[in-house]
Write a structure and sequence with these properties.
heterodimer; A: 2 domains; B: alpha+beta; Beta-lactamase; 5-stranded mixed beta sheet; about 40% helix
Chain lengths: ~150, ~775
Amino acid sequence: MQRLVRLVLISAVMVGCAVKPVVDEPQEPMTASQELDGSPALSLLTSAEQARQQGDNSRAERYLERALNIAPDSSWLYKQLADLRLTEGDARGAEGFALKALRLAPDHPEYQAGLWELVATARDRQGDAAGAKAARERAATLRDPESRKA
Amino acid sequence: MAKKAKKSPAKSRRQPSRKKKPSAQRRRWFSWSFIAKVGLVCLVLGAAGMAYLDALVRERFDSHAWQLPARVYARPVELYEGRVLSRDDMLKLLDLMRYRRDARASTPGSFAVQGNSLLIHTRGFNDSDGGEQSERIRLSLSGGQIRSLEAGGDRLARLEPLQIGSIHPQHAEDRVLVPLDKVPPLLVDMLIATEDRSFYDHHGISLRGLSRAMLANIKAGGLVQGGSTLTQQLVKNFWLSSDRTLSRKLMEMPMALLLELHYSKDQILEAYLNEVYLGQDGARAIHGMGLGAQFLFGRPLEELEPHQLATLVALLKGPSWYDPRRRPERAMERRNTVLKVARDEGALSSADYDTFSARPLEVVPRGASALYAFPAFIDLVRRQLARDYPPEVLSDEGLHIHSTLDVLAQLASEGALKEHLDHRDPKQVKKLNGAVVVVAPAQGDVLALVSNRDSRQAGFNRALDAQRPMGSLAKPAVILSAVEQPETYSLASLVEDGPIQVKLPNGSVWAPQNFDKKAKGAMPMVDVLALSRNQATARLGLDVGLDKVADTMKTLGVTRNIPLYPSILLGSLELTPFEVAMMYQPLATGGFSTRLRSITDVLDKDGKPLARYPVSTDEVVEAGPAFLTQWAMQQVVEEGTARAARAALPSDLKVAGKTGTSDDFRDAWFAGFSANHLAVVWVGRDDNKNAGITGSSGALPVWANLMGKLPQRSLSQNPPPSVEWVWMNEDGRRVSAEGCGNARRYPMLAASIPEDSDGCGTVKQTGKGIKGWFKGLFD
């Protein structure tokens, strides 16, 4: 009897789903201001970006470290550090920062997928093919709307 | 003709010789040719000597004109809206940096207070990100925070980093180099007026100056002017040792002449101002006006007022005789003489003379300067630098070392340790001492290091070198090892707290006791940690595996060899407080290991960046087990052996930690953290004898006190996706619900969540609970 009730309930939910399918609304791309809006860390981030454009990576890094002191839970800042390390050829450092960025990442599948790809690239460069593959799978899962719904 | 010529001088000389009946020898002695030869030899020797001196003069002056020790700076003070900073702490910082009160904050290094609002004229500095210009900023502080900040359109400002020491491994010479264009002109005027009025006219030596000085001295009835020129004084300071032998005196004049030949008056003046000896600070010789200004007045030379500049000039006559700290009357008299001479020479107006000669000496008390105030931390910096720089680079090249020291955290740590030990052991009968390490866990920055209850004393660096059994500080590693096997253990799993005996390979029996000598029976794993039960931890650790626990310790950052004895479960492994900080750092960050650093940047003497010591981090523990362990460590403070700390902390602040006591009460430990500060405290005796202390009574109060003084952020209570909150039956094996019997809520990894429920209440579990519900459909 209890089993019957459960089956009926499940069917009802399934019918409901069929009538109104889940719409896959595209998320706005993640930006710095989502995390750092109103924070003085934002101006340091801007300075870091300018320094990077001028090719002065160590200055950029110093700005980012200072920004992290102000906004220590900013995933975005860690992502910038990861990017910077990758450019500088420090793949291990890049992986560490990208994983940290993932720990702090907001619920934003596309952003998280990008971070996993960063992890994959960093692992590839360290010769860790299996690790890179695992990271790419994580990225793919995040981008797959079906798996996201499940 | 030739004969005649030869004879004639002989003849002329023979005349007097006849009367005195001179010998043939005497005649030869006076021969012209001999004189010519001696003259020639002298000339050659003299020329060689001059050439030698010339080389000496130029070599020293050109290459290493000044040996500049590397200078170590604290982290710059970052100011921004929202920063937690009390008005008192802000004023304390300005005082430490010797900012001067000035109603208009008109010059760099000055500030004005208007209630909660501060107007600060910053000094500006170089950094690897370009540094800061000197600027005027206005900030308002209230409720322990910076409420607003105006800084030329920017929302951020920085105060220059406070110099906290210098590194001179080979010799004890110290100096703050000041280029001539930064030297206050009045100082130069005073110097020339009192020491060498014809400086711009002579060629190194001044006979006129000498006679005038003598005359002035006779007139004054004492020594008011010296005879040697500034150039000669520089030679004496620069090349010649202080012993006044005749040969040194003889070298002084030619060297002065040579110096003038090669270098301009400005170069000589600059060298003089930076080289001149101004006194002694223990083993450290104070050279140059820049360091003199810092040593006596705690400020840069550029910021000194006329009476202070005059005090520096007064010292030239005799740094120890006119020492303004030990001989204030003499120093004052001499200072006013300098001011008077400056007025007479037109360098100072009469009005200024009246004003400034009435001012007191205003010398800062000895030891009040932040310089050399943090010997334990400087020792750490020196050790980290020594890996990358040879000693001569550190002693000569004037490197600027930007360190991670946070002055407020350092002062809070020193104060907390001293206060506690003064209370526990006021007369030092128990010979208690201690160490504190404070770290910003995410970046690995060492913010404070204390290695002595008298923190100004250098010597045995307990924080870095006192290697002691860590006691119960090892227990979180046991818990972490267990929760990393979620199929077998959760924080709700019951562990028997009762007698346990392990037969060791050498035949002896290991039978650990609980602190209270009691056995509490079965208890959840979280309580094993919170209540620091030895027998239960031993049982759990042996069950998990000694090798697994040792691996966890290594993963966390223990670099020492860990012998696989059961006693390591209860902390027989000896670590220094600094190593404990390394081991706890990943626990504080949810599993990210970051190398502890005391240096962020190295700049050259002109402020150009040379090297960075960047942050880097590795994920060493997965989010789930890391969160569980951190949560269990929070219960230590919430309801366990460290609950006494709660009183010193804001009630809503979530912190975690662990007490530690070694056998026979020799060592008291506490290691704990918030989201932004990790602090390790050790208290014990240097001779490793019974100190009669426990982690809770000996170390925790220090930790609570210092953490309470620093701005803290709570540990995150949001579990990672792999963890969910589950109400568990007290048997640790069945899911329960809120309000059911003794059910407790735990963070659980999915693999740990049991399928069985105790059937109490409405089971509204996610995860396995729901899975179980669905599963029921298809059974």
